[in-house]
Amino acid sequence: MTVPMPPLTLALTCRAVLFDMDGTLVDSTAVVEQVWGEFAVRYGLDLGEILRTSHGVQAGDTVKRFAPPGADVPALTAELGAMERVRTDGILPLPGAARLLAALPADAIALVTSADRVLADIRMGAAGLAMPATAVTAELVTRGKPDPEGYLQAAAALGVDPADAVVFEDAPAGIAAGVAAGIRTVAVGPNTGPLPAGMLHIADYSSIAVEVGVDDEGRRVISFRL
After folding, report:
1. How far apart are CA 88 and CA 122, in angstroms?
2. Does 22 qualify as catalytic in the annotation?
3. Among 31, 48, 40, 20, which residue's Cα sits nearest to residue 114?
4. Are 127 and 105 in contact (CB under 8 A)?
């Protein structure tokens, strides 16, 4: 499937595309705020501060940071995870996300998310988005974002050099992970925080166009217009 190329703004070429999930492909804001809000009320915490620092980070790392001394961090993390898995109301795809995923070769895309596989399947399904065959979820890495491990693992799984990939990310921790992996990173949405000079930034995928072709050596090339 090829999406027609409109008149242009900015061009970008690559051989593989790596996506974060929450806030990048899936808008799960309603559920996230609800679950972390209950956690904040239980322990008398500042919800705004939790949301500011937890975006794009594994839940266990956030619980460890904010839970009171002596709390059972693994048990609390498991409890919050169970809450998130049964709450799907309000989960939506970002504008243009389904069209973009359908336009890309299945073997050239990967999901790299701080959610575990069960939650990733639930949220992608609730948003009506196809789960990429290559997915690096929380349980597959030893260090979560902002560490680059997940993005480097995904690039290796797709058989591409990091310099030949592109990351789409919405959170400061994820953006830092993409940059640390040496992968060109496109910031998505309103919650990116301050961005490195020159980083591309899009609101969503509604105006993005993509073509898939081959170069002079017969290798696949994915071309974006943003």
Report:
1. 8
2. yes
3. 20
4. no
Q: Which of 20, 61, 164, 204 is catalytic?
A: 20
Rounded CA gap, 53 and 133, in Å?
A: 30
The per-residue pLDDT of the chain, averaged, comes to 92
User: At which residue do the structure tokens 């995870």 appear?
Assistant: 81
Q: Where are the alpha helices (DSSP H) in the chain?
A: 29-43, 47-54, 59-66, 73-85, 97-103, 117-126, 149-158, 172-180
> How far apart, in whole angstroms, are the C-alpha atoms of residue 131 and residue 61?
25
pLDDT in tens, 2-39: 555 444 457 899 999 999 999 999 999 889 889 889 98
Question: How large is the average pLDDT for residues 83-111?
Answer: 96
Tens-digit pLDDT profile for residues 60-84: 999 999 999 999 999 999 999 899 9
> Is 116 noted as a catalytic residue in this protein?
no
Given the residues 22, 61, 116, 164, the one annotated as active site: 22
